[in-house]
Amino acid sequence: MTTAATMPAPTGTEHLGPPRKGPTLWKRLRSHAPGFISLVVFFGIWQSAVVLTDPNPLILPSPRAVLEAFLTAVEDGQVWEAMKASAGPLAIGMAVSMIAIPIGLLIGLSPYLDLITSPYLWGFYALPNISFAPLLILITGFSTATSIWMVILSAAVPLCLSCKDGVQTVDGSLVRAARSFGAGRLSLFVKVILPCAMPFVASGVRNAISRGFVGLLSVELLIGANGIGGEVIQSARVYDTARMLAFIFLLIVIALILVSASRRLEVWASRWREEVVI
Amino acid sequence: MNNASHGEQESGRPLAVEAHDVSVTYDRLREKDTLIALKGFSIDLQHGEFLAIVGPSGCGKSTFLNVVAGLTFPSAGTIKVMGKPVTGPERDRAVVFQDYALMPWRTTEQNVRFGLEMQGRVDSNTPEVVRHYIRLVGLEGFEKAYPRELSGGMRQRVGLARALATEPRLLLMDEPFAAVDAMTREVMQDELARIVSETGQAIIFITHSVDEAITLADRIAVVTDRPGRIRELLTVDLPRPRTREARKLPEFQALRDQIWQLLSKAGVQPDRAPVTSDEAPSVTSDSNATSGEPVR
Fold first, then answer.
1. A3 CA to chain B: closest CA distance, Å?
2. Who wins on pLDDT, A134 or A277?
3. Tell me, what's the ipTM?
4. Is the minimum CB–CB distance between A172 and chain B shorter than 8 Å?
5. Which of A113, A139, A161, A267 minimizes the number of CB atoms within 10 Å of its CB?
6. Residue A163 has pLDDT above 90, yes or no
7. DSSP symbols for B218-232
8. B117:A274 CB<8 A
9. How many CB pairs under 8 A join A and B?
10. Under a CB-based contact definition with an 8 Å cutoff, are residues B244 and B27 in contact?
11. Rounded distance, CA A259 to CA A254, Å?
12. What pLDDT was estimated at residue A23?
């Protein structure tokens, strides 16, 4: 026994790497250092460009002016209000979109359902989601419902496709092994297909969050509703470029938080896969 | 173990496996023809007997194993396991796969209990059963390891423990050591011989290694041509345990020569036999097959 256990066999199929240890706080900070430095340099160049060339603040306000506009908006409570107004439709839309998970899994299980639904799913997927905004506005008017529907339409389709892919790429040898033990349909699904598809479901959710966010913003920018996108477009309309940029930066930060949070979800769901580096 | 099983046979118990004139054909869509994988394959297996099926890649030996497992259905002939016609997978059989087929999200422990879960046989006794078979295959200390953390040989130990944990009366092994390196392979052969001398079920063992077959088996079916038919059924009368020293015995050598002669006779026109898709992966593993074998 010990021979095999202690000797990594040189077949190239081995993955006997050292156990992964969580990096220390210092190492983690250090690994982010290049990103921080690049940010500082970016704002430095921006600020010095404004100081040196003194452009029209309508076109390029200084980072300082943007920060001031942001702080003012925070003090007025506009930032908070806008975030609340955007978060509601996003959360409701995303929650409803989760129905795409069972639907996608079901489509993946049935070749017939796949053939029937594929043209619609891929058609919707290929379409830039802003293009159904006018129709949505016609149906729902200028209301929160427009935003919610937009989030659902943007998020549910890629999520559904991803879940379908997850089921369809299940390792055939695992299914065979389960069948050799006499697995029934239910236990085959619950104990083999579902765990196999989990990484795809998680990456689908991640993708859906960012797509839903984009869908929400496209509606807000289009109709100037409440919410962060609405604040951006309203600032632009009154030529308050600094305030517009402040809200755009807020959007970037929120998007980054959403992406990294959902990345964590994906890593968690795929933790058994060797190619995912935690 | 062989003697004991013969005694049972005389008392009128059905044989472990009765295959009579089994044929398997596949319709190949791309080539637009019918592939005959097995033709007129007949063999009987006693209880507790270790049968090795040796043959080149693509001779249909894995197909036969799938038929016995209930994963493939024969187009002609009859196949019975424990006296009952095969209609699908049953609890009395378990398969060990060449590619291990372990669930990568399950630890050793969870993989070993997988078969029991599939058969709906998990009860309060299960943890003890799982512990027992992990100990039997020598994997104590690796209970919480995921397959990716184990070497090829250790993964196959998990595969073996998973099959044994369901306590099958017939163990089906499909080139189980073809994907592990030569040194681990010899260790695994010794381990398997030790384990089955304890558990004592009937075994059908597919391999393309002649030495492996002689080391392990009570009888060897040499399958040569395509469509797969048994060219010769040989009895191995070597004493057990068959250590590395046993390979130097003249009887071992003579048996090996005999099998190689049968195989090379069939290998006169090896290009005529197309490689089936289910056998194709084993071609790559030929490179790290047991050392010391002549290459055809």
1. 8
2. A134
3. 0.81
4. no
5. A139
6. yes
7. SEEEEE-STTB-EEE
8. no
9. 99
10. no
11. 9
12. 65
Inter-chain touch A181–B88, beta carbons under 8 Å: no
Of B69, B70, B151, the CB nearest to A4: B151
In whole angstroms, give the CA distance from residue A160 to residue A155. 9
Q: Which residues of A touch B184 (CB under 8 A)?
A: 3-4, 7, 9
Tell which of B62, B119, B148 to mutate to test the A interface (max A CBs under 10 Å).
Answer: B148
The answer to whether the beta carbons of residues B116 and B129 sit under 8 Å apart is yes
Over the stretch B95-107, which tens digit does the pLDDT of each residue have? 999 999 999 999 9
Say whether residue B188 is in contact with chain A using an 8 A CB cutoff.
yes
Integer CA distances (angstroms), B221 to A24, A67, A88, B43, B185, in order: 59, 82, 70, 9, 21
Report how far residue A48's alpha carbon sits from residue A46's, in angstroms, rounded to the nearest whole number: 6
> Looking at the DSSP assignment, which residues form a beta bridge with residue B235?
B219
Assess A75–B contact: CB distance below 8 Å, yes or no. no
Between strands B76-81 and B84-85, the pairing is antiparallel
Q: Which CATH architecture has domain A61-273?
A: Orthogonal Bundle (1.10)
A19 Cα to chain B: minimum distance (Å): 9
What does the pLDDT look like over A167-180, one tens digit per residue? 999 999 999 999 99
Domain-by-domain residue ranges, chain A? 61-273
CB-based contact B151 A183, cutoff 8 Å: no
What are the backbone angles phi and psi of residue B91, rounded to the nearest 5°? -70, -20
Tell me how far apart the alpha carbons of residues B124 and B117 are, in angstroms, rounded to a whole number: 13
- pLDDT tens figures, A36-72: 899 899 999 999 999 998 888 888 899 999 999 999 9
In the prediction, which pLDDT does A128 show? 85
Asked if B179 lies within 8 A of A180 by C-beta distance, the reply is no
Q: What residue ranges of chain B have pLDDT lower than 50?
A: 1-10, 268-296
